[in-house]
Specification:
By secondary structure, this protein is mainly alpha-helical. The chain is 75% helix and 0% strand. It is built from 30 helices and no strands. Helix 6 runs antiparallel to helix 7, helix 13 runs antiparallel to helix 14 and helix 23 runs parallel beside helix 25. The protein is elongated and about 155 Å long. It starts with 6 loop residues before the first helix and ends in a 9-residue tail after the last helix.
Length: 685
Amino acid sequence: QNLCESPARRFSGGGSPAASETLTGVVLDGLSDNTAEVKPARSLKTSSSPSRERLPFARSRPSPNSKPLESDKTSLEHPPDKLQSSSILNATSDTSARKDSHSKIFESTLHRQKAQKKFKKCFLEREESIALESNTNHLRNRQGSENRRTDDDRSQHAELGPYLLKLAKSTIASGDNPRKALDFMIRAVKSFEKRANGKPSLDLVISMHILAAIHTILGEFEEAVMVLRHSILIPDVKAGGVQHALAAFAGHMQLGDTLALLGRGEDALTAYHTGLDVQKRALGDMHPRVGETCRYLAEAHMQAMQFSEAEELCQHALEIHKQHSPAASVEEATDRRLMGLICNGKGEYDAALEHLVLASMALIANGLDVEVAAVDTSIGDTHVALQRFDEAVFAYQKALTVFKSTKGEDHSSVASVYVSLAELYLKTGRLRESKTYCESALRIYGRHGGAGHQLDDIAIGLTGIAAVYEALNEQDQALLLLQNALGILEAAPGQQSAAAAIEAQIGVIHYMRANHSEACSSFQNAASKLQAGAERKSSLLGIVLNQMGLACLHLYKVEASVKAFEEARSILEESCGLHHPETLAVYSNLAAAYDALGRLDDAIALLQYVVELRENFGTAVNELDDEKTRLAELLKEAPTRTRTHPPHGVRELLKQVGASKHNRHQHIMLPAAASQGLLQSTKAY
């Protein structure tokens, strides 16, 4: 609309005065001297349209009310006939002058239009430059506001993260809805992440560790693993200093705990060792905190029945605590107690007893009566293994007195001592006392509202009582107790190995009751759980596979039994050694299975090897006689086996296999660490 108006109006309404004067000069330059009567001011009056502007002529027509000019008076004084020629000349000259005036006015109009076009062009360029400058300023202001907004957001996130973290902690501490705490922590992690802006941030790492812990509380272990794997990538271990290294260490250890709850024992041990390496590089090999980590890893290896690795780590922890702690310190006592349990697992009972006695003396010096009672229980177990039953009873009774006075008569620790006494009296033939202690322990475990009850302690106690009832030939009661214990452990995270051991013991009872199909199924389930965890190369898995092979033989699945025996042989050779009774029992069973498949040469070679080992080491005289008899029969039949003698039938082989003491009744025990309750699945870092 502004561009359609005349330039004079736009400039008169606030435009540039210099441009108005220039335009006036351009218009006046186009006029001649004959048009001096034209008033240029009219051409600059405000008009709605320049094209409709009235242009003056050289001579204007007089109005009726105007006075006559002097030239008119003169023309009236002369007669017309005398002035005729002059009037014609004047008319001719007027006509030519009028034409010249019109042409000059037309030219001035063209000049004026050109000037207007030029002005419009200049005006548009000026408007474009003003608009461009305005847009540039707007973009600068917008960018500045966005930067200020980003700074404000960062400041808000800097304040919001700690506040949300505090809310999450208070929600967890109050025991309210964990989902609400999870929501707070997710928002806190996002806030710390925006605040970090891609840089290593310890606040972000710690918040992610707490988020993973809440996921673990809710049973969302896979989500916790994902968060922890992301958290260990954030700290700058090389350039960030000790704090960043310790943050990465904590992430690795928490990741190991979470993987252990998922039953992924090998992955958990890998995470633990990675964390230990990071901690050693940050603090040094002999730092006291490194000693605590070594002890924790030793417990994890003992839980996986990897006693050699556990012993090495525990010995390193003991050396560190000897260097940094005074004599007979609590740290040294804890290390020695663990070393005693490891030696018990390895069968080195004298060394175990030495470590346990030293640990007890150190704890007594520090006035820790409850811990002394726990060590006394382990001392009693070691005396039982050494067939020193009187010393074992004294240690058990001493521990029982302390537990009753400090924790109460209905505590699970009291029940566990009752179970140990029941097993001891069972071995000494005092069956009445054994059953009485079992009933006392069952009464404590049956009081679910009592103090000190933990599900894993109850499951372990029920397993021990079931073993006693099984020995008393009360298999129905034993089977019921084992099934209850299995139900408890299967519902608890991180108890896969203990559940596998109980399921294997259920298989043993089914096998003894000639329920070979149920026995084979139980053994297979137990083996699968052990193979999925860190016990894939433990002696427990070898024993379970041996039992599964026997059950498969009864089901006439000879090839499946051979496969189970061969796998058990490779595991027991590595974990127990070539001369261990369990390994020799598997050799004998595998030889019988080879005979059933017609692999006579393999059966003879394996039996000869077993007989030679037993003769050299003088062990298991009864088994040696049976195996010599079987070997003599195979050697006698070997030359004519392919022509006259078919392979031995499964029934005959089962009679030979059943003569072995190891195959009549195989009692499968829980892992040592599980029975002692040392390794807590939710230990906090």
